[in-house]
Design goal:
mainly alpha; 9 helices; Leucine-rich Repeat Variant; single chain; 70% helix; 2 domains; 0% strand
């Protein structure tokens, strides 16, 4: 007899509901982020981001501003390689603190991304900034356009032009 394959949604729901079943969703998120930071284990970062995405997808939680300081602290760590994965998390917050993190991501140069001078990370951060409404995101794009070099400057200017046309 052939075994039925689990859909991605079913597998994710099963994982998240069985992961620390006696904790609230918010406690799960807080704990996995804190443990990832303390352990300095890049696998823990992957697990924590999967839990957050899973809870967000299934229950609509995971992007509460109460977690932003933990995400920011994790993002600033250079021992993991999940920085690009975290860009969309900051974009979803749409807050001043997230704008600061995205602005930093557009300018940072990480050792493990030396092969492309962290340009893909910067491009994703600039794109995410352009999708956040309000003057603070625009000011950050303008700062990048005026103070960064090469592709970063070009991308920020392109996003500012595109938004001016909307």
């Amino acid at each position: 007899m052939r075994q039925k394959k689990l859909s991605w949604e079913s597998a994710l729901k099963q994982f998240v509901t069985q992961f620390r079943p006696h904790q609230s969703d918010s406690q799960r998120i807080r704990d996995v982020l804190e443990e990832a930071i303390q352990s300095q284990d890049s696998r823990e970062v992957g697990i924590s981001l999967s839990v957050v995405r899973g809870l967000g997808y299934i229950h609509g939680v995971g992007y509460s501003k109460e977690y932003l300081p933990l995400f920011a602290e994790l993002f600033r760590q250079e021992w993991h390689s999940a920085h690009e994965d975290m860009i969309n998390i900051f974009e979803n917050f749409k807050s001043e603190e997230a704008i600061e993190e995205l602005g930093g991501a557009a300018q940072v140069r990480l050792k493990y991304l030396d092969f492309n001078d962290s340009e893909e990370l910067a491009r994703k951060a600039i794109y995410a900034l352009s999708r956040i409404p309000g003057p603070q995101a625009q000011e950050k794009l303008q700062f990048i356009a005026q103070n960064c070099d090469g592709p970063r400057r070009k991308w920020a200017r392109q996003k500012m032009k595109t938004q001016a046309c909307l």
